């Protein structure tokens, strides 16, 4: 995964929310249709470090990835287990995904 050089400037869609943007690569996640594979990856265990654009699904332990960094209040969908989540603060200055449905 590489960070887009124009990450801090307005994106092509005209968004000026100041979020960093990332270029996603297919990492071999075969449990979802090909079109969506770059948005998921397998969790590497407790030593796996998450990037600002990655969240761990608490249900199936799959990493959900985004082209933008996550912020509190963002909504996620985990296609492998069909879980809907929202990003919340974990109380230690970090972010976690909380299951909504």
Overview of the structural elements:
The protein has 101 residues and is an all-beta fold. The chain has one domain. It is built from no helices and 8 strands. The chain has strands at 2-3, 22-23, 40-42, 54-56, 62-65, 75-78, 83-89, 95-99. The strands form 3 sheets. Strands 3-5-4 form a 3-stranded antiparallel sheet, with no helix packed on it. A hairpin with a 4-residue loop joins strand 6 (75-78) and strand 7 (83-89). The radius of gyration is 14 Å and the shape is globular.
Keyphrases for this structure?
three-stranded antiparallel β-sheet; 8 strands; about 100 residues; globular
- Share of helical residues: under 10%
N- to C-terminal separation? 29 Å
Describe the biggest sheet? 3 strands, antiparallel
Give the tally of β-strands: 8
**Average pLDDT reading:** 87
- Beta-strand percentage? 25-35%
Q: Which structural class fits the helix and strand makeup?
A: mainly beta
Gyration radius over CA: 14 Å
Total domain modules: 1
- Total helical segments: 0
Q: Give me the side-by-side strand order of the main sheet.
A: 3-5-4
Model regions low in confidence, pLDDT < 50 over at least 5 residues = 4-14
Note the quaternary state here.
single chain
H and E string: EEEEEEEE
């Amino acid at each position: 995964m590489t960070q887009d050089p124009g990450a801090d400037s307005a994106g092509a869609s005209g968004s000026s929310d100041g979020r960093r943007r990332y270029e996603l690569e297919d990492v071999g996640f075969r449990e979802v249709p090909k079109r969506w594979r770059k948005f998921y990856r397998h969790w590497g265990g407790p030593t796996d470090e998450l990037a600002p654009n990655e969240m761990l699904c608490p249900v199936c332990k799959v990493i959900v990835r985004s082209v933008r960094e996550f912020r509190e209040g963002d909504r996620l969908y985990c296609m492998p287990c069909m879980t809907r989540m929202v990003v919340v603060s974990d109380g230690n200055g970090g972010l976690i995904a909380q299951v909504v449905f």
